[in-house]
Amino acid sequence: MKANIALLPGDGIGPEVVQSAVRVLQAIAEKYTHEFSMQTHLIGGCAIDAQGHALPEATQQACLAADAVLLGAVGGPKWSDPKAAVRPEQGLLQLRALLDVFANVRPVKVFARAAQFSPLKPERLLGVDFVFVRELTGGSYFGTKSRTEHDASDECRYSVLEIERVAHKAFQLAQSRRRKVTSIDKANVLETSRLWRETVNQVAKHYPDVTLEHQLVDSMAMLLLTRPADYDVLVTENLFGDILSDEAAVLAGSLGLLPSASLGAGSRGLYEPIHGSAPDIAGQSLANPIGCILSAALMLRYSFGLECEAQCIEHAVAEVVAHAELTRDLFGQASTEQVTQSILSEISRMEASKAA
After folding, report:
1. Is-catalytic flag, 242?
2. What angle do CA 193, 231, 322 make, to 5 degrees?
3. What is the pLDDT of residues 308-334, one digit of tens each?
């Protein structure tokens, strides 16, 4: 197949990890005889420096024309003034709205070797394999905002349609997994959460083969750390999902291991590792490229329907995490380049094995 991928490396370690993912995609294209056209464009702080905008018009047009978008990271101390008129994060929020990617999918699976680096007891991490589905384009992040000398407000607003479409994504995903959805809200206090719960209950009627349960967001924060193996697909609104999915990342042992996919109604998606730009280690080949490489695997699965190719990357990563030297976030000494090369070698070895 042929596919057009827009690359948005961004700031800090973003260019390094995106380059690692590009090399893996090139190896997959060669192995499976695909053609991936990949062009680089500006976003975030580097875009502000170059053009004065966090998401320049040329980047917007390139992303709209692409079949999928692979992002590195945005932001850094240079652009950290919260009162600045233009900030790197604005580019990311604008991109999500532009592409209408309303469901952020974050898989959290604990590799056995990496479990030792989590602050939780190892026995609590056995069998942890769940997916967060976070509503991405509504709620208080996108609501009307006001600020005076004495007060401030951020409106949280949700429509039935916004809730329905992300709930359908969660239930459909659950059908391909263990057929359980946990919906997270604050329905005992918030009117938006009451609408959320009522709407999710209605959507659940279309999926009689999936079990639905509800949890309040505060109790869910505790349960993620005490019973994480109990969960399959968790769906929630934007703010709650932002906080809880970052909390859940600690289970994996390192933010550097975790990918994400932001999906809409069509096949085009936005893919990025969940970690930040880590400017303190940028340019030193110290970054863990695995989260970005696994994000590329999600791209192959969700945007291109290439399940075998996605599994090839995931298997190669699993082998490297289990047996190879890792980056320093996982208490290893390997460089970004060395981990990338280990994954490429594993993909090549798998190819030779298949050919034999």
Report:
1. yes
2. 135
3. 999 999 999 999 999 999 999 999 999
Q: Is 49 a catalytic residue?
A: no
CATH for the stretch 1-100+266-356: 3.40.718.10
- The single residue of 49, 145, 218, 280 carrying the catalytic annotation is 218
Q: In the predicted model, is pLDDT for residue 338 greater than 60?
A: yes
Domain boundaries 119-252, corresponding CATH code: 3.40.718.10
pLDDT digits (tens, 9 = 90+) for 75-117: 999 998 878 889 999 999 999 999 999 999 999 999 989 888 8
Three-point CA angle 328, 8, 87, nearest 5°: 90
1-100+266-356 and 119-252 share one fold: yes
Q: Is 83 a catalytic residue?
A: no
Catalytic residue among 100, 129, 141, 180: 141
195 token code pair: 């609408």
Considering 185, 186, 271, 329, which one is annotated as catalytic?
186
